[in-house]
Each structure stands twice: as C-alpha cells, then as structure tokens.
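#lab-general

N.A. 3:47 PM
ok so I finally got the sequence cleaned up, no stray characters, all 189 residues accounted for. can someone with queue access submit it? mine expired

B.Y. 3:52 PM
send it over

N.A. 3:53 PM
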Amino acid sequence: MRFDIAPTGVPNEVHASPVDAGPTYTDHDFGVAVLRWPRDEHRRAALQSQRNPRLLLIAEGRPAPVPSDELEDWTRSAPGSRECDARIAELARRSRSAPPNVRLSGRRLQRGSREVTLSAAQSLTIAALLQHCGRPVPRAVVTDALSIADVASTAAAVRALLTQLDRLVAPLGVRVWLLSSQAVLLEVL
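B.Y. 4:20 PM
back already:
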C-alpha cells in the first residue's frame, strides 16, 4: 500500500500550518481519501457528495463522528498500520460494490432526485445491506446492525422490519428481498 501526500489532489503537494496535525493523505492505489479529523472536516462533505470513500484519522482525545454513509469509516491508528490498511481496503471494496446512484445520508435514502426518510432501525439495516448490494447475505448481517441500536431482533421483528423497509424503498427502485428464513438481498432495479 502506498500513500502519497495529496491534500489538494496533486501528488506530493503539502499545505501545512503551525496547527496542522500532519498532512492529508490520499491512497492512490485504492482511491480512498484519508482525512485528519477534525482538521479536514471541510473536505468531508465534498468527498461525500462525490461518493468518494473516506477514512477519518481521529485526533487523540477527540470524539469520533458518526460515519455519514457506507463509504466512510474512522480509526485512531496511524497511516500504514494494519488496522488503517484493512479499513482502507474495506472502503475500497464498498465503493466498488455500492450502487452509485443510491445514497444513504443519515436517515435519508436518496436515488436521483427522490428520497425517503427512514427510522433509525431502517437506516442501520439499509447501511448494512448496501455493503453487500446485489448479493445475498445472512440475516445475521441485519440482526448485527440492529444490535447497535438495541432494537428487537427476533425472527418476527426482523421479518416485519424488512417487509416495511421494502415497501418504503420500492418507489426508489430499491427492493429488499427475503430469500429464505436466513438470507436477505438488497437489489437496485
């Protein structure tokens, strides 16, 4: 893995000031922007709107922000560490598999100019399924996502949630299929 210092997209160009926590990196092998948080907060929104994957390096003692979509993650590890490299590789994989015209922003799922507002549980579910868009995944992916929000994850509750979610996102051309009692598929038509 190779990091080129590129705060403005131009390799080997560095802009530093006395308060900088270090340079911003872009991983050119994977196309993942690695931003120092909170210093590079202003770049985060622009990269998100362009659907660029982002890894936030959180400064010591600072709280980590909630990832804004499935193409964002954070770590306190230094660039080049195994954890940082693994997170970059995962973000690169997600950016290749996520449908480019479907965007989850907080609790809003958008496709083109249309959008729907999701509940917290629906948002967690869609975020988990977007990582595997077009591929069947075990229902455990959904139950694991729901455990974050302390939402009931019994078989009946998950089935009801997925059925409601499918009805809600269908007008966007997005379908949530229950393939069996143990598998779920998110499909963009």
